[in-house]
Amino acid sequence: MPLAQLSKLRYSAATAAFQIEGARTEGGRGTSVWDTFVDTPDRVIDGSTADPGADSYHRWAEDVALTAGLGLDRYRFSISWVRVQPDGRGAANPVGLDYYSRLVDGLLEAGVTPFPTLYHWDLPIGLEEAGGWLSRDTALRFADYTALVADHLGDRVKHWYTLNEPAMTTLQGYAVGELAPGRFLLFDALPTVHHQLLAHGLATGVLRRAGAEAVGLTNNHTHVLAADDTAESAAAAAAYDLLHNRIFAEPVLLGAYPDLAALGSPELPIEDGDLELISQRPDFYGINYYNPTTIGAPPADSPIPFDMLPTPGVPVTGFGPDWGIMPEALTALLVDFHRRYGDALPPMIIGENGASFPEPDAAGRVDDVDRISYLDGHVRAVAAAMADGARVDEYTVWSLIDNFEWADGYTQRFGLAHVDFTTGERTPKASYDWYRALIAAARS
Length: 444
Description:
The protein is of the alpha/beta class.
C-alpha cells in the first residue's frame, strides 16, 4: 500500500447519537422524528427500536477506550439535538450537555480529538410538525441550538461538522419516505435542500464566533455511472448527478445552484444573502462514500428522469445489489471533485466509509475478512486519488461499533467492534486490529 500517501492522512471512526446512545427516556431527552418513525409499524424492517441498542449513553467510556485502542486521531460522534434542546426551541437541557461534556473530556484525556456532528438526522418532532426542513424557521432554530452547544463545549471542541448527509434527508426522508420523517414528496422535497444548507451557513458563523478552528459539513456523495452508451442513459445519469451531488455541493463551494432544468427547473426558497451565508468557505468538505450508482433511462411513465439500477459485475455488501463494491469509483469521485471545483474546493475529508456483512448476534470474535477487504480497497482508492492530485486530509471508518442501522434495524452491522445488543458487550473484530495496524504503519 502506498504509505507515502497514507502517511498524510488523519484517521478517524464515526458513530451517530440516535444509532448508539439508547436512553430514550433518560436525562430529559426529547422526541425526534426518528423516535416517531421507529414507533410506526412496518417502518423498521425487523420491528426493532434504537433503545437500548449499544447503550452508549451509559457505556461511553468503553467507546472512548476503543478509539484510544485504535490510535485514532479523531472520533466523529454526533450530538443529539433533542438531548440538548428537547423541543427544538428554548433553553438547553443541562443534563444532556453534561453528557457530551463528559464524552469530550474523556476523549481529550485519551489523546483523541473530539470531532462532533451537530445534526445527524434527529430533528425534534415539534419542528417537523411545524414544517421540518421544508420550513425556513428550522434553519434558524438550528442556529440557536448550535449556539447552545458551542457555548458549553466550544472551550474544548474546535473541530465541527454541522450537518450529516443533507442529500439523504432530502432524497430518502422527504422525497421517497424510506427514512424519517417518512414523507413522499418527490421533487416537492427540494426546499429541504436549501434550508439544510442555510442551516449549515448559519451554524458556521456561530461556531467561528465561538472560536472554532475547523467547520464543514459532510454529504453522501456517489460516483454516477451510465448504464449504457446511449444518449438517454447519459442524460439520465447527468440528472441524477445533479440531484444527488451537484445541488448540494455547488451552493457551498461555488455560491450558486447548478442549472436545474433537468429536474424541471424547480424554484428554491432563496432569499437575499442566503447564498453568501451558505458559501462561506468551509475549512473542509466532507464526503461520505459507500457505493457507486448506476443510472439508466427512465420508463416512459416515470415521474423522475432516471432509473436506478444495480451496478453490474461487482461484488455486493450485506445490503445486496444496491450496494455494489467498487473502490475505483471512490477514486473517480474524489478526482472529479478536485478537477471540477479546483481552488474552490477546500481539503476533503472522507467522513464515512464502511460496509455491512452478515455477522452473529452474540458476543464473540468476528473474523470479518470481507470488511477488511472493503476497507483496504477503499483506503487504496483514497491514496490513488491523492496521487492524482486530490487533497484528502482524513479518512473515517463507519462505524466504530455496531449500531441501530436506521430503517434496517439490527439486520446490518458496520462496526469495527461487535456489539451484543442483549448484553451491550463490545468485542473488537479482526477489522479493528487491521485498522489499528494500518494507522500505526502510516505513522511509522
